[in-house]
Design goal:
Layout (H helix, E strand, L loop, with lengths): L4 E10 L2 E11 L4 E5 L6 H8 L7 E6 L2 E2 L5 H8 L2 E4 L11 H12 L4 H14 L15 H13 L5 E5 L7 H18 L2 E5 L3 H6 L3 E6 L2 E7 H5 L4 H7 L7 E2 L2 E2 L2 H7 L30 H5 L20
Parallel strand pairs: 3-8, 3-9, 6-7, 7-8
Antiparallel strand pairs: 1-2, 1-4, 4-5, 9-10, 11-12
Bound molecules: adenosine-5'-triphosphate.
Protein name: Phospholipid/cholesterol/gamma-HCH transport system ATP-binding protein
Keywords: ATP-binding, Nucleotide-binding, Transport
GO molecular function: ATP binding; ATP hydrolysis activity
């Protein structure tokens, strides 16, 4: 069913450099969340903090009653078993074939026999569409296949939480679209809690139940997909619509002169909110909400043309 992650008042610095501060959010059990933010805003640092690889300076991260930020090494070891992580490059061992790479966590962390391991590895390889590629070395396959192999490995210990660090980096739009479908299908199948760090606005607009945006050393907004996609808040609006007009500049914030020069420039209207991508078998995920419900419940009129089948999305200005 997945487990909830409750982050409260979290801050992380390296030396005197504050990466982000006062981050509070709840990642609901079984749902898909996307974390966005301009480069260098600390999205990867956030993921590493959630699994206890980095210690925050203050705040708490509650998972099943344990605070990752302050628990003992022994408790952390136990909690980490709940996580599967897909690293950016798949983080495969180059000299091992895919079978051994995927089997690795089972051999390291369980006492399962080789025949039990074989069943699990083949099941996960099947899940990510890689049956038949077990003997290949990571260097012999495409980036998209490497990501899927990394995903199979992230799933072998049946995680309750799966973290994806830029799953779409280096993939073309078609491969990204296939990987997104795989992520949605997997969520429907295993019901774990998913957190995806990405730069891809199209992924953020169509895949998650909830979106967060890190910007300028804080969490600018976190909430249901429809809340952010209908938001007029300048940073959220600019980022989710990939626009140049707004507070975000080439190297993080624009200065006062740049902002002054933009005064009076008309912003393009918000594009329609697309339908959320559904599992390929057409059966809604357990946590999936009806299109438009959040807007209706919160008295927000969605942009014209929202929630229509096969609509053309116009992003960017
Ligand atoms: N171990 C570390 N020690 C010191 N500084 C670090 C460490 N890890 C990350 N940083 C710094 O933290 C900041 C945020 O890095 P991070 O990789 O989390 O950003 P990001 O939002 O994931 O960026 P991108 O989208 O480009 O991948 C950067 O300035 C980086 O140099």
């Amino acid at each position: 069913m997945g487990v909830e992650i409750k982050v409260d008042d979290l801050s992380k610095s390296f030396g005197k450099q504050l990466i982000w501060g006062d981050v509070s959010l709840t990642i609901p059990a079984g749902e898909i969340c996307v974390m966005l933010g301009p480069s260098g805003t600390g999205k990867s640092v956030f993921l590493k903090t959630l699994i206890g690889l980095l210690k925050p300076d203050k705040g708490s991260i509650l998972i099943e009653g344990t605070d990752i930020a302050s628990c003992s090494e022994k408790e952390l070891y136990e909690i980490r078993k709940l996580f599967g992580v897909l690293f950016q490059d798949g983080a495969m061992f180059g000299s091992m074939n895919l079978y051994d790479n995927v089997a690795f966590p089972l051999r390291e962390h369980t006492k399962k026999s080789e025949s039990e391991i074989r069943d699990i590895v083949m099941e996960k390889m099947d899940l990510v569409g890689l049956l038949g590629a077990e003997d290949k070395l990571p260097g012999e396959i495409s980036g998209g296949m490497r990501k899927r192999a990394g995903l199979a490995r992230a799933l072998v210990l049946d995680p309750e939480i799966v973290l994806f660090d830029e799953p779409d980096s280096g993939l073309d739009p078609v491969r990204t679209s296939f990987l997104n479908q795989l992520i949605i299908d997997l969520n429907a199948q295993i019901d774990a809690t998913f957190l995806i760090v990405t730069h891809d606005v199209n992924t953020a607009r169509t895949v998650p139940d909830n979106i967060g945006l890190l910007y300028h050393r804080h969490l600018a907004m976190f909430g249901p997909r429809e809340m952010l996609l209908s938001s007029e808040e300048p940073v959220v609006r600019q980022f989710l619509n990939a626009q140049r007009v707004g507070p975000i500049g080439m190297s993080e914030e624009k200065d006062a002169d740049e902002l002054e020069a933009e005064k009076g420039q008309e912003l393009p209207p918000l594009p329609p909110i697309p339908l959320q991508q559904e599992p390929s078998n057409g059966i809604p995920r357990r946590s999936q909400r009806e299109p438009g419900v959040w807007c209706r419940e919160n008295g927000i009129t969605p942009p014209p043309g929202s929630f229509q089948e096969n609509m053309n999305m116009t992003i960017g200005s």
